[in-house]
Amino acid sequence: MVIVYISIAVLAISIIFLGVNVIQNKKKIDPALKELTSVTQAMQKQVEGLKTEAELLTQKQKKIQQDVQMKKNVFQQTTAEVKEVPQAVKEVWKAGHLNSR
Questions:
Q1: What is the pLDDT of residue 95?
Q2: String of b and e for 39-67 (b: at least 16 CB within 10 Å)?
Q3: What angle is formed at CA 52 by the lines to CA 47 and CA 56, rounded to 5 degrees?
Q4: What is the pTM of this model?
Q5: More confidently predicted of 9 and 85
Q6: Distance between CA atoms of 92 and 1, rounded to whole angstroms?
Q7: Distance CA 64, CA 42 (A)
């Protein structure tokens, strides 16, 4: 029976020792956890900033693409009209030549 009481006492002392160690370690870890939390929050803010910048860049890219497409269309239209000029000049020349005869 004495062995049972000694075993219970050893178990109780072990549990108390474990509890004390857990509390001490928790006190040591708390500052590190707080620092980790603050670093994580700062990183999340930076990520949000990057997302916002990426969205703005995407919008600017779309505007630039639209502008390029519009200018391309204007250039193609102008080129087509310039290609028609020689024919129009020929027609005017012929019409002028026919009227002068």
A1: 76
A2: eeeeeeeeeeeeeeeeeeeeeeeeeeeee
A3: 145
A4: 0.55
A5: 9
A6: 129
A7: 33
Distance of CA 31 to the CA centre of its chain: 32
Question: 40 pLDDT exceeds 60?
Answer: yes
| Locus of tokens 């620092």 | 35
Half-sphere exposure for 97 (CA within 13 Å, toward CB): 6
Task: Using alpha carbons, list the distances in angstroms from residue 46 to 40, 49, 52, 60.
Answer: 10, 5, 10, 21
Tens of pLDDT, residue by residue over 62-76, are 999 999 999 999 999
* Whole-Å CA distances, 69 to 58, 63, 65, 100: 16, 10, 6, 46
Look at residue 33 in the predicted model and tell me its pLDDT: 92
